[in-house]
Amino acid sequence: MSVEWIIPFAVGIVSLLGTGWLAHFLRRRGMMDNPNERSSHKIPTPRGGGLAPVCALFLGLGAASTAGTTNLTPMFFAAWAMVIAVGLIDDKLDLSAKIRMAVHVGAAVLVVINCGPMNFIPLPAPIYRDFQWFAYPMTFLWLIGVLNLYNFLDGIDGFAGTQALWVGLGVALILGQPMIGACIAAAALGFLVHNWHPAKIFMGDVGSASLGFLFACLPFYLRPTMVAESIFVMAMLLWFFLADGTFTILRRLSKGEKIWQAHRSHLYQRLTIAGRSHGQVVLLVAMLQAALFAVLVWSGLSLDTHAWLVAVTALGLFGIYWAWVVREEKSQDTVPAKA
Fold this sequence. Notes:
This protein is mainly α. It is about 70% helix and about 0% strand. It has helices at about 5-30, 50-65, 75-95, 95-115, 135-150, 160-175, 180-195, 205-220, 225-235, 240-255, 265-275, 280-300, 305-330, and strands spanning about 30-35, 45. The longest helix is centred in the last third of the chain and has 28 residues, at about 305-330. The chain is globular and about 50 Å long.
């Protein structure tokens, strides 16, 4: 075994121990997420624990890049550091959305300058076509959209950490980057020890926004000649986060609601309102993701006809998820069923 494989092990240990230390430190400093009418938790809990796995990942991937085992560049790390910094400050001071968005856009600009835009539609043929002039807007939509959707979906214990674990496995097995994938999985596992229900600490924006940005950027660096294919794979690895977030935004728009206002109408939130525990919701989504993951591994890194099976499977599984939520709402009779 190469000496570089010490890196993922170290990432996992730093994430595990660092998150545990932060839970005590933040509690002593009073940096707590207090429950309110929109919360999915009932007791004050420290937030900002995502700093430990994110810093562990930052240092681990930086070491791997220095050793020549990844294609990540200094400009990427500069952009990622911007997102981490604004997330950390936001967890402490509750920055305005305009300030956060300005920093996120600035970070995305650095990545686009570094890598260029995604030039092809990341969907199977015959939809797979050159974006042409639309390439830059769609690239920014992907980078900023994934960052924010991942942040929005970090709302119950163990959810974002489990999703990160799937990404790590997919990066290693499908995108062909075992070092990066192992580091992501190790960081996620170390954090999940403290974040599984009932959570001792929450990820906070410093964790969820930073991980969302990392996952959005990776397709541009891991396979520079296959960016569209890599984005398709990443979208499938993040499918239940991206689909739930997008579906909820569209449903709220159709009802004339202000989508920038806080709410509790994501599918995972509706399940907890209907009486399911955090652990039950996370395990349900994990089982659905496992089924999609199996088809994705079979399809591989391509946008040929096999990818259509992946896309249809993803839509079907999300339909099952939605139907399950509606059924639970009706059976529990806690809220009116929402179509």
